[in-house]
Amino acid sequence: MNNPLVHPSFQPLYQQIKSLLTQSLISGEWAPGEAIPSEMELAARFGVSQGTVRKAIDELAAENIVVRRQGKGTYVATHSEDMVKLRFLRLVASDGSRELLDNKLLSCERSKATANMARILQIKAGSAVIDIKRLLLFSNKPVILDRIILPTVSFKGVTAERIEEFNGSMYRMYETQLGIRMVRAEEKLTAIGADAETAVLLGLKPGTPLLSIERTSYTYGDKPMEWRLGLCLTEQHHYFNQFE
């Protein structure tokens, strides 16, 4: 498909190319793990220089949206399980040990978006959503009570059966089975006390200190696609982040 730039813009040219490449990703023209066209092909497609295309791709690579492979080309990045754990799961054992991570699905129900949830996910209040609750277990011990809200319009295929049958993270399932890739997330951390329901599910006394991690995850084009709340027991774990 040939779509050269035809409209004047105050954006730098490479930013315009970056936006066009992002639109191609949103439309599903190139799937996760698939090679995108060469810089020469993209330059011809958009009617710009290879240097401009290269700068646009450099920015996408810096944002982990594409990956350059020496001698092979540029590929749409995927959610390998190791990358998911590094980028989206920040709770680690305080003694530094590597733990077996598992999960237990508690419920997967259809519901309607509250006004606040509609604002976060940029959908209309009352829109259909999928409300998921599960336990995350570290070495067979429940450590996180996880709640996930998804807009049904984008996640129609998500069911309890599908979640339980899939061997991997939720982000990996979104990508491989639904074609939805999360490229960044925002988190808000708060210290809270466990309420009665959370205490029962995590095997704690009510009021036990927990770390609340509220996260909104975004796909291409900075579109919010998932809201998640993790209530975390930090007696033997801590939140870890790394800045580069």
Please give the structural blueprint.
Layout: H1 13-26, H2 39-46, H3 50-62, E1 66-69, E2 73-76, H4 81-88, E3 91-93, E4 101-112, H5 115-121, E5 128-138, E6 141-151, H6 160-165, H7 170-178, E7 184-193, H8 196-202, E8 209-219, E9 223-232, E10 237-239
Antiparallel strand pairs: 1-2, 3-10, 4-5, 5-6, 6-9, 7-8, 8-9
Helix pairs in contact: 1-3, 2-3
Question: Can you describe this structure?
Answer:
The structure is a single chain. The protein has 2 domains: 64 residues, Arc Repressor Mutant, subunit A, CATH 1.10.10; 159 residues, 3-Layer(aba) Sandwich (Chorismate lyase). A hairpin with a 3-residue loop joins strand 1 and strand 2. With 244 residues, the protein is an alpha+beta fold. A 6-stranded antiparallel β-sheet has the order 4-5-6-9-8-7. The protein has a two-stranded antiparallel ribbon with strand order 1-2. The longest helix is centred in the N-terminal third of the chain and has 14 residues.
